[in-house]
Amino acid sequence: MQTQLFIHGEWRDGAAGKTMEVVNPATEQVVAEVASAERSDVDAAVAAARGALAGPWGALSARERGRLVWQLGERLLGRADEIARLETLHNGKPIFESRQIEIPAAAECLQYFAGWADKVHGETVPVKGNFLTYTLREPIGVVAAIVPWNFPLLLTVWKVAPALACGNTVIIKPASQTPLTALALAEMAAEVGIPAGVINVVTGPGATVGQMLVEHPGIDKIAFTGDTATGKQIMRASADTLKRITLELGGKSPNIVFPDADIDAAVRGATTGIFYGKGEVCAAGSRLLVATSIRAEFLEKVAARAAKMVPGDPMDPKTRLGAISSKHQLDRNLRYIDLAKKEGATLIAGGGRADIGTGKGFFLQATVFADVTPEMTIAREEIFGPVLAAIEFADVDEAIARANQTPYGLAAAVWTKDIKKAHHVARRLQAGTVWINTYNVYDTAAPFGGYKQSGFGREMSLHALEHYTQVKTVWVDLNQ
Predict the structure, then answer these.
(1) pLDDT in tens, 321-347
(2) 3-state secondary structure 447-473
(3) Is 466 noted as a catalytic residue in this protein?
(4) Alpha carbon 301 to chain centroid distance?
C-alpha cells in the first residue's frame, strides 16, 4: 500500500512531513497514514508535469501513448482483486461493487480512450483565396484532476484516461478520505512504463492542496467532480488564470413512475437508483415521483424491498449495502432524516443508524420517506446517502414540472410502457442523462454530465476529448 506523494516517478514524503489518517468506515480503524502535501510539493508536481509534457511524453507518437494507456488498463485488471479491496477498505462500499463493477469499468475506460489516442486529429478548411488552411488539435497541457470520495478510482480514471489519450499530463488530487487507489494507479502507471511526470499524485486537504492547484499558474485545466458549492469556488478561484474547467457536480435526480409502468421493474429501479453505492452517487434517484393512482401499492413494495437492504460487512461478497463513507457523512444523513420528520414527511422504512454486530462502523439503514412535498428540505437538497423522498404527482405535466423543480440537472428516469410518453417526457426533462425503464446504467461510450447547477462538460465518450484538447488554425500562403 503506497502512502507517499508520487511526483516525477518517485515516492516522497510531503515537504513538511505532515500526514493524514485514512479511516476504514466499516471498522472506524485507521488503515493508513498518508502524506499531506505543501505548496512546494504542488510546485514540484507542476514542474514534473510540465517537464514531461515538453519532454518524453510530448515526444511520443499518439499511437505509442495509446499503447501505454491500454497497458495501464490491462495492469489494473491484473491487480483487480487488490485494488478493489483498497477501494472498499477506505470507502466502505461493498466489495461486490468494487470488484465486479467499478474496477472493470475503470479498466474499460482506460482502454476505450487508449483507442482514441491516434484518432484525435485536425481537418483541412476550404477558405477563400489561395491558401492551405488546416487545424491541429493539441493537448491543453497540465490537467489537475480533483476527485471525490464516492467513486475514488473510477472518477479519477474518467479524467486521466482522456487527458492522457490527448497528450496531456496529469496531477491527481484524490479526496482526503480515499487516496489509496489513486496512489495505486500511479504505481501501476510506472509499472507499465508511462514516463515520469506524466501522472503525479498529491494528497492532502482539498481546502489547501486543492486550492493550490486551482490557483497555480502552471495548471492549464481543472477537471473536478464534487459538490456544487465547491464547483462554484473553483470557478471563482480559477478566473485569474483563465483555466479551462469542467465540473461534474451535485444532483437531486427525479425517478418518475407512471401508472402504466411495469411496477415490479420500477420498484427494483427505484431501490437500485437510491441504494446502489449507499446513495453516495451524484446521479442517485433520490426523488421518487409516483403517480397518485399507484402510490400506495408502489410505496408498500419499495418499503418492503428497502427493509431487505440490510447493511453488512463491506468485505463480504454477499453484502449489497455497505458503510457510509465517514462519520461526518453519516451525521449529515441523520440530520436530514430528523429534519424530514420535523417537516412532516412519513418514515416508512429505515431511518436510523445500523449495527452489523461489531458495535463499530458508520452504517445507516436504507431509508424511505412518503408524503414528501416539493418544498421540504429532503426534496430540495442533496443528502448523498441511502435516503429516498417519495413525492406524488397527478398527471404528466405535473410530473415534469416537479421533476424540473430543482437547481440541479444531472440525471432522471422515466418508467412507462408507453414509448411515445417516454420520449415526450425525456425531451422535456432538464437533465444530462435520462434513463427509460432502467436506472444507473453507464458506458464509457456514452457521455455523462449535467445541466444547470449540476455542472458543465461531459465525462466519457468522444465528447470528453473536446475538453482535453485545443484547436490551432494554420494558414499557408500558396500564392506565387
Answers:
(1) 999 999 999 999 999 999 999 999 999
(2) CECCCHHHEECCECCHHHHHHHEEEEE
(3) no
(4) 30
**What is the distance between the alpha carbons of residues 98 and 21, in angstroms, rounded to a whole number?**
22
- The answer to pTM > 0.85 is yes
Q: For residue 335, which amino acid is it?
A: R
Closest CA to 224 of 147, 294, 131: 147
Q: Which of 282, 382, 392, 459 is catalytic?
A: 282
Residue for grid cell 425503464: 437
Could you report the per-residue pLDDT of 37-92, keeping only the tens digit for each? 999 999 999 999 999 999 999 999 999 999 999 999 999 999 999 999 999 999 99
Pull the grid cell for residue 387: 435516503
* Rounded Cα gap, residues 410 and 315, in angstroms: 30
With b for 16 or more beta-carbon neighbours within 10 A and e for fewer, the 332-361 pattern comes to: ebbebbeebeeeebebbbbbebbebeeeeb
| Cα 263 off chain centre by | 30
Q: What three-state secondary structure class fits 470?
A: strand
Residue ranges of the domains in the chain?
A: 5-249+454-475, 254-443
Joined grid coordinates for residue 378: 429532503
Top CATH class, 5-249+454-475: alpha beta
Place of cell 510539493: 41
Alpha carbons 53 and 431: distance in angstroms, whole number: 36
What lies within 8 Å, CB to CB, of 469 at 6+ separation is 120, 137, 138, 139, 140, 166
What is the residue-averaged pLDDT of the chain?
98
For range 384-399, the mean pLDDT: 98
User: Quick check: 480 and 474 in contact, CB under 8 A?
Assistant: no
Fold for the domain defined by 254-443: Aldehyde Dehydrogenase; Chain A, domain 2 (3.40.309)
pLDDT(106) > 90: yes
How wide is the angle at C-alpha 101 spanned by C-alphas 31 and 284, nearest 5°? 90
Q: Do the beta carbons of residue 346 and residue 369 sit within 8 Å?
A: yes
Pick from 14, 9, 179: nearest CA to 90: 179
Catalytic residue check, 282: yes
Radius of gyration of the chain from its Cα atoms, rounded to whole angstroms: 23
| 434-464 residue pLDDT tens | 999 999 999 999 999 999 999 999 999 999 9
Q: Look up cell 494528497; give the residue.
A: 203
| In the block, residue with C-alpha cell 463480504 | 316
Which tens digit of pLDDT belongs to each residue from 282-316?
999 999 999 999 999 999 999 999 999 999 999 99
Alpha carbons 414 and 130: distance in angstroms, whole number = 54
Give one DSSP letter per residue of 235-258, joined into a string: HHHTGGGT-EEEEE-----EEEE-
Name the active-site residue from 87, 97, 102, 248: 248
